Amino acid sequence: MPELPEVETIRRQLSSAGVAGRRIEQVRVRWERTVAPLSSETFCSRVCGRTLLAVDRVGKWLVFRLDGPENLLVHLRMTGGFYLAPGGTPEGAHDRAVFHLSGGLQLHFRDPRKFGRLRLAPAPEGVGPDALCVSACVFRQRVCQGRRSIKAALLDQSRIAGIGNIYADEALFEAGIHPLHPAGSMDLDVSAALCRAVRKVLRAGVRNGGTSLGSGRSNYTDLNGKSGGHREQVKVYGRAGEPCVACGYPLQKTTVAQRTTVFCPHCQPQE
DNA sequence: GAAGACCTGCTA
DNA sequence: TAGCAGGTCTTC
Questions:
Q1: pLDDT tens, A52-76?
Q2: How many CB atoms lie within 10 A of CB A144?
Q3: Does any strand B atom come closer than 7 Å to the Cβ of A33?
Q4: Is the CB of A60 under 7 A from strand B?
Q5: Which partner for A107 in A61, A91, A99, A252 could form a disulfide, CB atoms 3.0-4.6 Å apart?
């Protein structure tokens, strides 16, 4: 679930919550695979005693800077998230790891579906430039290549990092491009328009504190357990069958790159 | 590329 | 109860 705007929202909240400067005194790993390929013992021994310096973001990765060569890299995947609690707070049913920080603060990593991952490395690998601030030139170079569909290219984190299924559909709608359009055969002005659309929808997502769809507890919530406010701004994702906000034509649902895809056949013609 | 794997919770 | 889900990995 969390894409770039959701991860950025959590990053900002962690930063302003005063996590930086605290020492990691103890770590409890409650689901072994969360820290794979390390064992929980190895993970804990390498993290305990380190001080959190800052919280950064690279694409969908959260980067907790530590006072050493290794940083704590966190990928939330589908249902991961953090919350802060006072020392002594019991672990929640879906907590997969809990960091006990100096000053009596607990950082809980919660992840119902257990897909999220905690890694120790200097930086995430195989991740392209961040989609939030990519230039039209770099965007075209990296994304608008090859015969794959443009939607598949947008989702490929090694080309450009941070776009997920929701914002891919939103950006393609914004730019009026069919999701199956071949990535490598777009005119300059079309790829520039898509680049602007990508930045526009991601920035709007960040401004609104991320997107939450559905209503379940496995849904995205920020550090304070609040749902994202961007849902009302979503124009196509999750709105199949509803009238297009621009032309009124019913939005169509299909599958592209093995992902649910919603688009307007009228505003995003195949050719 | 496409399909399956990894997982649980929610909805129809 | 079956089917579906915002994301990656691995293996054809």
A1: 999 999 999 999 999 999 999 999 9
A2: 23
A3: yes
A4: no
A5: A99
